[in-house]
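Reopening closed ticket. The problem is back. First fold of the pair:
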Amino acid sequence: MAGILTVNEGTHHLTLTASVLFHEEKNIEKLLNIMESFTNPFTEESKNLFNLVTKVLVPEKGQEDLVGESNIGQKLFAKFLRDRIQSGRINLWSTMK
């Protein structure tokens, strides 16, 4: 009947079987093994930047961009202010490159 649980339905979850639990435990174990194989970024002595998961080195240009991100952003912001706000050479609403 609608809204009434039988004894079996109330005490046993349909998807919680021994087979499902076994596969979930195996997947958790695999995930933990993968996470343990990750490199701890705080133990590396290298000056090079690398992808934490794949351990592939970041190209030189990418390293320069990541390390100098703050300076690059400040320069672009100053140029935006100079061109669009202070001098009015470029319309404020024009698309940005």
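Second fold of the pair, where the issue appears:
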Amino acid sequence: MNRHLRLVWLLLGLSAFVFLGVLFVLPTKWEVVRRREMAAPPARVFAQLDDLRAWRAWSPWREDAYPGLVFKYAGPPRGAGAEVSWDSSATGDGVLRIVESVPPHRVAFTMAFQHGRIRARDTLSLEPLPGGRTRVTWSDRGTLGRTLLGRMSLPVIEQSMGRDLERGLAALAAVCERETAAAR
């Protein structure tokens, strides 16, 4: 019996070792890209992207989506250096900062969550299309650090972020297309 018990413990130990080994080789970074065409010129779309206060109308992370969420703005009103931060029990803490603004082609921003343990860099690129239309490509790249829990949650984060980007692009299109129609 003692011999069988040792065999069981050996197998359990080996299984745990293999499980942890697999976790340590799982990726810690993600990349999610979504695109959407909009019936609005690049300059109109860019104006929404470059002003963080304008994000209230289309961002997937709006104040009205999360009870108790309050944004604090810092830096210039638009462009590189503009920043918004938050801290709530529903979403945790975070900071979003525009780090690059190239009118009317691109806005890049960084995000940090959980006191900087989770970091992302996003780029919203605008491509002019015929007929005053714009293709917006939103790419989100980030890292979860080296935690085992982060490695296991990566597929969930990629799926969730994909939904957020799609929702944001749909709302951005609605805002920009409404403004374009009103300007005619």
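Update: turned out to be a display glitch only; the data is intact. The radius of gyration is 22 Å. The mean pLDDT is 87. Please close again.
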